[in-house]
């Protein structure tokens, strides 16, 4: 029985709705296994701008540094502003990832057998898919400078910068090799080496690091070819490692293998160790979904599955993590569906009702 400290930030749109269900799942785990989770709820995103004047306050940043883990919902609205501005919702995520040195974003993609019919792809394509995308999270186009819109005598122009150091590439590729070693030992490194200098350096570093992992197979793939192969034959992938933006786009695509964006959790991990494991920030891969916010339609399963990653990676509670994943499998096997994963003719239940079903399943084991 352990005692753990977790920062909880629901954020904007459906973020607070799905995070509330994730918190209920966490509390059910606490009750079932006798663990104490002390939760520190804070504002983030537009919600924090409205109350505290910045998308994340310095007090919240300092709190996160002391926690065992951070449970995060989603931030953003319908607008698009510069994420480097303190009053833009996305600033909070950029700041958390950079300051907490969360360089590895791990996104498991495993379609649940009961949901094979929820995907637009054929069942035969999806059966047995079990892949892990490792996205570099603190470099590339998201952080490179300059990044701005400029007024020139000839009119407006814009620039973004993709930049990577050898060290940044090596630590993420090495991390992916380690993960592949514990799985099916196949690593696909995805880049655009036929166009980008960053990708050519990426390839060179991946080949060099490969020498330390002779038991793992390494193949390089161009990102355009990878986006096609992910849909054509997703079973051919074990671990995929790629840079920040390619990973962002490829995992939204990969979410369709599971039926919905509302099914995919993620763990953002860094080098810091806690008393129980690896410090991390855990969030569903989806955004704040303003189109369905406040309507009780959001699928909370991605957020609930993030708690399983949090329990496993940061708190070292493997049994509790498996209990959450089993509960999610059980509720979908029992036919519970939110609107995004309901096939024609199936009744859709609300965010809260889905959370109720998961909590009941966790407690009933
Ligand atoms: N990590 C984050 O906080 C994060 C990630 C992506 C986008 N965003 C932000 O979110 C806002 C909206 O972006 P978007 O609409 O392009 O992406 P989105 O992921 O919010 O939504 C895309 C589509 O998927 C649906 N969807 C997403 N999550 C769902 C869920 N749990 N259940 C059911 N349906 C779900 C939405 O209704 C929408 O139709 C923007 O401000 C964007 O910047 C934030």
Question: Which terms summarize this structure?
Answer:
alpha/beta, 21% strand, Isopropylmalate Dehydrogenase, two-stranded antiparallel sheet, globular, binds nicotinamide-adenine-dinucleotide, single chain, 365 residues
Architecture blueprint of SSEs:
Blueprint: E1 3-11, H1 15-33, E2 36-41, H2 46-52, H3 58-66, E3 69-74, H4 89-99, E4 104-109, H5 123-126, E5 131-136, E6 148-152, E7 155-159, H6 166-181, E8 186-191, H7 197-210, E9 217-222, H8 223-232, E10 239-242, H9 244-258, E11 265-273, E12 278-284, H10 301-313, H11 318-333, H12 351-364
Parallel strand pairs: 1-2, 1-3, 3-12, 5-10, 8-9, 8-10
Antiparallel strand pairs: 4-5, 4-11, 6-7, 11-12
Helix pairs in contact: 1-10, 1-12, 6-7, 8-9, 10-11, 11-12
This protein binds nicotinamide-adenine-dinucleotide.
Nicotinamide-adenine-dinucleotide (NAD) binds at residues 14, 18, 74-77, 90, 93, 260-262, 283, 286-292, 298-299, 302, 340.
Kindly report the spatial arrangement of strands forming the biggest sheet.
2-1-3-12-11-4-5-10-8-9
Count of individual domains: 2
First-to-last CA distance: 18 Å
The tally of beta strands, per DSSP, is: 12
Helix content: 40-55%
Question: Mean pLDDT across all residues, rounded?
Answer: 96
CATH class of the largest domain: Alpha Beta
Q: Describe the main β-sheet briefly.
A: 10 strands, mixed
CATH fold title of the largest domain: Isopropylmalate Dehydrogenase
